[in-house]
Write a structure and sequence with these properties.
39% strand; 3 domains; Beta-galactosidase, Chain A, domain 5; globular; alpha+beta; 12-stranded antiparallel sheet
Length: 673
């Protein structure tokens, strides 16, 4: 559903000076102007950003270089400006909120350089802004490659919340909180808290056929956009007409203001798939956690976990507790040996002890779906060669969701060229971006949804391709098994203000056995059990795993009830409280119902939160069931201490929560009859 229309405004022409566009509420201003290099003909475009008349982004460069030429980097002589405004509301088929308002003012700056023209599209919303480059077809211009000169110059001191963009683990590094001038190289989203209280997040939207970028610190608050190159050093391979992804700056006066932003989604194109009623959010159990725990193997042999009998037992568990699907990892031929080093995965053949047809049929009989699994080991060309046949196999057995995997370090994706030579490409380079969209489109042709692990970053393409249900793209629960270190208590809080600003994450919350050994070495999940429940609300994903084993859930059957009840698709989501890296609380209303769910989590510090319930219907009373930390709970010394209490609440009430160190609280609020 779409409401409202855009209005095209007058075109202006500037030979010099500055020209701006403001947010609908007037609080955010983007200003574009000329800067002059030492070369007399070297004028180039720059921009600034203010929030409430205070400069947030100081003079920062815009521009592109093409085929090692400075066609679009200097020699700027003219700026023409076309304006329009938009106020529309659109409906998500699934999501953290059903209706999304898309309200912005836009300026399209046509920049005339010495020989050629380029446009910069700028949209300013009440929750931030974005800009993108466009090069139209024009006489005498042919382009094969592009690099960017884009900068973000932060004008104030403050704190940065970031993960390194240099490490081997891609997006799976811990986040750091440092002074802004201590950042070196960072992936996006990178979140900043400035000394005047303003919060901003730097990221991108609508990443299509172009490399992702990371931020390179250049000193004095300057961050340069660095496109991930191909293995031959080329940044972006393009042809005309060309349009870049959006460079985004989410802006808010507080940390909570970032959490309610829909800017990334709004910058993507509407759904191109048509009817997507076949895309189904929900929860899934799986043969996964026990393998990480060392209780079985992906590879064949006497300890192979993905057997027909084991899958049917997992289906029985899921059916008993109303879980929607079951993921089976290790089901196919090819896990033996070094599957990362050699392209051994055959995604068209089941292992000898796994009957795909029988298991899929058994799941359907129980009213569940089987979730497929395609692990590539990073051998992308090998996967693409069998992708059609592998997806056809899933379609034949009515498998409507698939988890894909690209295990291996960043810069390790294997691309085989026409001459049979293997090249190692970045997981967030243009090759990877192209591959993932190929996978999403081919899956959609078969009405299959995708959950991508070890992916390229999320940039909101779930709006355009609603079958891209979720993805990983950060340190998930499995790092608690691997240890050294596991995820510290602040990690899940940090995700809310960084990674999750980009979109859903398949984190796999819900582990109940928090203290165990792997190869006689102790491992700890650094949360309380109540926090594991709260993660189903604070970490948004339309699909949520129920990863632990039956016996661990049934040991704490009363606490497990929250996981049984909590939905994954929401009518509305509201940030209730929070500070970056310290704590966060969300309220979400189930889609198609009247129940609300609240999740609140903290870092290593105990906290007391008072959460107003003003979002409730004023004409009703509700029963609140709180699954919270016990009085002596602590992630390290007593993680299993929890309490469950009920009370009657209404719109005028405030919910008082006591969160233990590394703890949390999960609340279900139901209307009373």
């Amino acid at each position: 559903m779409r409401l409202g229309i855009g209005v095209l405004l007058a075109m202006l022409s500037l030979a010099a000076g500055a020209e701006g566009v403001s947010s609908p509420d007037g609080s955010i201003q983007f200003q574009l102007s000329f800067a002059q290099s030492e070369d007399p003909s070297g004028r180039y475009p720059v921009y600034t950003v203010t929030l409430d008349d205070e400069e947030i982004i100081a003079e920062s460069r815009l521009g592109l270089t093409t085929d090692d030429s400075d066609n679009f980097s200097r020699g700027l002589s003219r700026i023409d400006v076309a304006r329009r405004s938009n106020d529309a509301t659109w409906e998500q088929p699934w999501g953290e909120r059903r209706f999304v308002r898309d309200h912005y003012n836009e300026a399209v700056y046509s920049l005339r350089f010495a020989e050629f023209e380029m446009a910069v599209h700028v949209r300013v919303f009440d929750d931030g802004l974005a800009f993108r480059y466009e090069i139209p077809e024009q006489d005498g211009l042919a382009i094969r490659t592009i690099d960017e000169l884009t900068q973000f110059v932060i004008n104030r001191a403050g704190t940065a919340f970031w993960q390194t963009g240099d490490g081997h683990e891609g997006y799976e590094h811990l986040y750091q909180a440092t002074a802004i001038d201590e950042v070196t190289t960072a992936h996006t989203p990178m979140t900043l808290r400035l000394d005047n209280g303003a919060h901003l997040s730097l990221h991108e939207a609508a990443l299509v056929d172009y490399p992702a970028y990371r931020l390179i610190a250049a000193g004095d608050g300057q961050f340069d956009v660095d496109l991930r190159p191909w293995s031959d050093g080329t940044k972006a391979k393009v042809s005309l007409p060309f349009e870049s992804p959006w460079r985004t700056i989410q802006l808010a006066r507080s940390a909570m203001g970032l959490l309610d932003s829909s800017l990334i989604l709004n910058l993507n194109e509407p759904n191109v798939l048509g009817d997507v009623s076949w895309v189904e959010p929900g929860k899934y159990a799986g043969i996964w956690w026990e393998i990480h725990r060392g209780l079985g193997t992906w590879s064949s042999g006497p300890r192979h976990a993905a057997t027909t009998a084991a899958a049917k037992a997992k289906i029985d568990f899921a059916a008993e507790y109303g879980i929607d699907g079951v993921l089976v990892e290790g089901w196919n031929v090819g896990w033996d040996g070094d599957y990362v080093g050699e392209p051994t995965q055959d995604l068209t053949k089941a292992a000898p002890d796994f009957d795909l047809a029988a298991v899929a049929r058994y799941a359907r009989e129980k009213g569940l779906r089987l979730v497929g699994h395609h692990e590539t080991g990073g051998h992308v060309t090998h996967y693409e060669e069998q992708m059609d046949e592998a997806l056809d196999l899933l379609e034949r057995h009515a498998v409507r969701q698939v988890k894909t995997g690209y295990v291996g370090r960043t810069g390790s994706l294997k691309r085989v060229d026409e001459e049979g030579q293997t090249h190692l490409e970045h997981k967030d380079g243009q090759f990877a971006v192209r591959h993932h969209l190929t996978n999403i489109r081919k899956a959609a042709q078969r009405r299959i949804s995708v959950n991508t692990h070890e992916p390229v970053k999320d940039t909101g393409l779930r709006r355009t391709y609603p079958n891209w249900l979720s993805r990983e793209g950060s340190r998930g629960q499995e790092f608690n098994v691997w240890g050294n270190p596991g995820n510290p208590p602040e990690h899940e809080v940090m995700l809310a203000y960084t990674r999750l600003l980009a979109g859903p994450m398949d984190f796999t919350p819900g582990v109940f056995d928090l203290d165990f050994e792997i190869d006689n070495k102790p491992r700890r999940v650094q949360t309380t059990l109540a926090k594991q429940l709260a993660l189903y609300v604070t970490i948004y994903s339309p699909i949520q795993m129920v990863p632990d084993m039956r016996e661990n859930y049934e040991r704490y059957r009363d606490a497990f009830q929250f996981i049984v009840d909590v939905p994954t698709d929401w009518e509305q989501s509201i940030a209730l409280a929070g500070e970056v890296g310290d704590f966060v609380a969300f309220a979400r209303k189930e889609r198609g119902g009247d129940d609300w769910y609240i999740g609140a989590i903290t870092d290593e510090q105990a906290r007391s939160l008072s959460l107003p319930l003003g979002f409730l219907d004023g004409d009703r009373s509700y029963r609140a069931t709180v699954y919270g930390d016990g009085p002596d709970a602590h992630w390290e010394s007593s993680p299993y201490e929890y309490v469950i209490r009920q009370s009657t609440v209404g719109k005028e009430d405030t919910l008082e929560l006591a969160l233990a160190p590394g703890g949390g609280a999960a609340i279900r609020i139901e209307p009373e009859e």
